[in-house]
Amino acid sequence: MPNIAHTYYPQSGFLVVLGAGESGVGAAILGKDKGFDVFVSDKGAIADSYKEVLVQEGIAFEELDHSVARIMTASLVVKSPGIPEHVPLIQELRKAGIPVISEIEFAAQYTDAKLFCITGSNGKSTTTMLTYEMFKHGGVNVGLAGNIGKSFALQVARASFDVYVLEISSFMLDDMYHFRADVAVLLNITPDHLDRYDYKLENYVASKFRIVQNQTAADYFIYCLDDEETMKGLPLHPTKAIHLPFTQEQVVASGAFLDEQNNIVINVPNHKESFTMNIEELSLQGKHNVFNNMASGLMAKAQELRNQTMKESMESYVNISHRLEHVALIGGVNYINDSKATNVNSVWYALESFSPDIVLIMGGVDKGNDYEMLRDLVKSKVKAIVCIGKDNVRIHESFEDDTDVIVNSSSMQDAVEIASHLATKGDTVLLSPACASFDWFKNYEERGDKFKEAVMAL
């Protein structure tokens, strides 16, 4: 049974899970194991692999519709982060006073494991994976969950970890109320998903700062001192947690900073030994990855890992697929898959990581992007833009004065072939879309895989 201090919601009765993806199916299994009567409802089609699991577990489900009358009798609802708040069914549930929470909120009630929680507009997956690998290397009994890996709820139900490293999106945070992070990390805040936040940046900022809610004086809050929106939001969202800032522009007594020799220096209160490592030794290069390593290093120190373990992990870590992933060197041209760059700031980081000349493949479903922040980098580094996706009018309008060539393509294969003709020896062809993928592809993974296939077919 959970520690009673963790329980805030009905612990039995009728549990409805909305959405039958990784998080929904995991929540359904945990609910079943805890004695709930569970019903899974998905407005879309449920993937065969998840259907098989639900059948094996004997969990009732429906697809392609919601049985509203049945759902409205729920004691508790766990909803997929992909379902927006303004959906009529969610509004009805709220009005009826039925608790609607996220899978993370639901599962956290049933574990006493230490929770390291990472959010931010960019760098979440890299920082989460690096931290997870570092903890594993240090012998920690650690689980990986959230926006990445297996469902948190499923692992709480069927595995037994002492520590979890959780990648947490703003959509997840929106449905978290009593959840508490032992270590909360806010990497950065840049405009993203504003269509879910009434196109108000302050609403999105408030969502990100939910990562620190309920923290105590014994917990840690790790954040970027150089990030403008984080620093503006800090006084509006106070926390009792111990502050561990990281910075490349200042020196801090407690936290992480760069010294004059370009060494990352990490100091955490009550941990006597300081950590030092030159940025040249990091396996992940680029300014943004210095930040990611600082954040991971601070988490490792909070977990009391040895300096040697931290150094070995930072030297050897290989980046995740679809995030600045090196695909091939063909005819002296580097091909880089950054399909996970679904917002403008991610593209800024990608462009900042490479030297001129870049042939940039970008486009897709525009989420209200402001391309202004890319203008200087496009002017100085990008020789051509190849557009993918159905509607690229805004990309043409934004960059027509900043680069010599902007062309549309009819498929990913077409885009890669065009880019290969535009690139010459020493150039980089970079897929970094700044947009969602679902006009041409199921998700960013499929988009990245199609890019890699097209490159290997050249």
Automatic annotation (TrEMBL):
Q: Where is the signal peptide?
A: none
Pathway recorded for this protein: Cell wall biogenesis; peptidoglycan biosynthesis
Q: Which Pfam families match?
A: Mur_ligase_C, Mur_ligase_M, MurD-like_N
Which biological process annotations from GO are given for this protein?
cell division; cell wall organization; peptidoglycan biosynthetic process; regulation of cell shape
Q: Which reaction does it catalyse?
A: UDP-N-acetyl-alpha-D-muramoyl-L-alanine + D-glutamate + ATP = UDP-N-acetyl-alpha-D-muramoyl-L-alanyl-D-glutamate + ADP + phosphate + H(+)
Where's the Mur ligase central domain? Answer: 118-298
Name the principal localization, coarsely classed: cytoplasm
Instruction: Provide the GO MF annotations for this entry.
Output: ATP binding; UDP-N-acetylmuramoylalanine-D-glutamate ligase activity
Q: Which InterPro entries does the record match to this protein?
A: Mur-like_cat_sf, Mur_ligase_C, Mur_ligase_C_dom_sf, Mur_ligase_cen, MurD
Arranged from A to Z, the UniProt key words for this protein are: ATP-binding, Cell cycle, Cell division, Cell shape, Cell wall biogenesis/degradation, Cytoplasm, Ligase, Nucleotide-binding, Peptidoglycan synthesis
Q: Binding residues for ATP, per the UniProt record? A: G120, S121, N122, G123, K124, S125, T126
- Name listed for the protein in its UniProt record: UDP-N-acetylmuramoylalanine--D-glutamate ligase
